[in-house]
Amino acid sequence: MASPQPQPCDSMAARGRSRKRTVGLAIYGVVAALVVGGAVFTSSRSAADAELRSKLTLIAPAGAGGGWDTFAREQQQALRSNGIVNSVQVVNVPGAAGTIGLGQFSTMHGESSTLMATGTVMLGGIQLNDSPVGMDDVRPLARLADDYDAIVVPADSPMNSIDDLIAEWKKDPREFPFTGGSIGSIDHLVMAQLALEAGIDASQTTYIPNTSGGEALQTVFSDTAKAAISGYNEFADQIEAGRVKALAISAPQRLEGIDVPTLLEEGYDVQMSNWRGMVAAPGTSDEDYEELLSIITEMSQTAEWEDALARNQWDNTFMVGEEFEEFIAAEEEEVAEILEGLDL
Fold it and tell me: Would the keyword Heme turn up in this protein's UniProt record (predicted)?
């Protein structure tokens, strides 16, 4: 007896089961590939994150002992103490208001494990030195702190207020030299703004640049300059020791615990902060940039950093992202306007 022939419905069912197995295997293959690919990506990303948290280099574009150097080393201590980054080294690259360091840093394309300090002083240096590189050649990361300038005179000076200083300055600007940081630094800019407010031609005033507040004080003590301008914390010890008198400070309001009037209080519309921040190298990938931002954010929230802010009389002005980029653009315009008045 002949075997019965398969019915059409049985054949279609078999073919359907076959197609389902084929499609199922194909889907399994795609899912497996995605899982494996995702694992590879995650592994690669984790490795990159681990590398950044293993070792970082912070460039201070100034000499040892100055403001940028202190700023970088305070970060170094906070990062190490809290285990945020295992090894952190600070490298000094001084010169030309930070633009020597900026020039070198701009060539470090894609070197994510290196960051550089920046701030008001560098913006002035870029313009005054006709620097071929600028802030557009790096990746702004975060603004971390601001400090403010104090104007001081020797303790035995007959000047006891900023009005006294203005009166003496007006008599003969060329014979009333100021001293402070580099040409185009915040110290120089504060002097220029004060001159504008007082009706004095800043370009006619002698300005003696130095590399630190300590050197500026020596210039005043030797009677080579009549007044010195620098960050308050660089003068604090000498003010407390009674060797110099602080006549005014460039802050928007009095600093806590410091009995020094602001220039605004004294009737002069001069308010300028020496902001300090960090930038990442050009060519830093978006993934590495986000990890660096996480590292800096963690550091800014540590007890060690809070202590550094208090000890150095720095204001916590943490700012990142588009807001920070817009801030830099506005600062560049303001610095350019002030420098134009100096006719340098």
Answer: no
Name the CATH superfamily housing domain 148-249: Periplasmic binding protein-like II (3.40.190.10)
Indicate left, alpha or beta for 283 from its phi (over 0: left) and psi (-120 to 50: alpha).
left
- pLDDT per position as a tens digit, 40-80: 434 444 555 789 999 999 999 988 888 899 999 999 999 99
Q: Where in the chain are the domains?
A: 51-145+276-342, 148-249
Q: Tell me: the pLDDT tens digits for 288-324?
A: 999 999 999 999 999 999 999 999 989 999 999 999 9
User: Which superfamily does CATH assign the domain made up of 51-145+276-342 to?
Assistant: Bordetella uptake gene, domain 1 (3.40.190.150)
Sign of the dihedral through C-alpha 5, 10, 15, 21: negative
Cα dist. 326→64, 131, 196, 320 in Å?
30, 21, 26, 10
Residue ranges in the chain whose pLDDT is less than 70: 1-48, 344
- The reply to whether 51-145+276-342 and 148-249 are identical in fold is yes
Q: Are 162 and 267 in contact (CB under 8 A)?
A: no
Structure tokens that stand for 127 in this block: 């313009």
Instruction: Output the pLDDT for position 304.
Output: 98
Task: Please indicate, yes or no, whether the overall pTM of this predicted structure exceeds 0.85.
Answer: no
